[in-house]
Amino acid sequence: MCYCVYLGTNRQLELGNFVPEQTDIFLQQLSEEEQTFLRPKFTKRNIYYVGSDTGCSCGLAFESATFADPDEAINKKSPTRFIELLKELTLTEDIEYYCCWEGGWDLPTEHIQEIDISEISVDKNYWGLTEKEFIKFNRQPA
């Protein structure tokens, strides 16, 4: 089973596809079923599925404590790119995030937090992936 990560934004974002060994991160439209169950969790107009270098959202999982481990070097790419995307998006608005297991879209949210993405880095305090978690990434001050 795979993690599914979703982003909510008022902007329309560029969609992409997974290309093995070339893709670090990509966004896709939701299926009708995902849309039905996820829409109530978000206030933003547009919701996107976030994929990673693994072809699913699982590649966004990372523990900052393993940053210096040479065997983890390849696992840093997608989380690093994800943080960059969130930093870019929060220049203009708050961004909403939800994580669940695939097929668990209808389960209630159990964890809610707000994060200032400008203070996050993959080597120090990356939040990882938690099932049934909603995060609001606050807009960065101008």
What does the model show?
It contains 2 helices and 6 strands; from the N terminus they run E-E-H-E-H-E-E-E. The chain has about 140 residues and is of the alpha+beta class. The longest helix is centred in the middle third of the chain and has 13 residues, at about 75-90. The radius of gyration is 14 Å and the shape is globular. About 25% of the residues are buried.
Task: Set out the fold topology.
Blueprint: E1 3-9, E2 25-28, H1 32-38, E3 46-52, H2 77-89, E4 95-101, E5 111-115, E6 133-137
Parallel strand pairs: 5-6
Antiparallel strand pairs: 1-3, 1-4, 2-3, 4-6
Fill in the keyword field for this structure.
alpha+beta; about 140 residues; about 15% helix
Structural class estimated from helices and strands: alpha+beta
Our count of domains comes out at 1
Helical fraction equals 10-25%
Cα Rg: 14 Å
Number of strands: 6
Instruction: Write the H/E string, N to C.
Output: EEHEHEEE
What spatial form do the alpha-carbon principal axes imply?
A: globular
- First CA to last CA: what distance? 40 Å
Q: Kindly estimate the percentage of residues that lie in beta strands according to DSSP.
A: 15-25%
Number of helices: 2
Low-confidence stretches: none
Could you describe the largest sheet, including whether it forms a barrel?
6 strands, mixed
Task: Quote the average pLDDT.
Answer: 95
Major sheet: arrangement of strands: 2-3-1-4-6-5
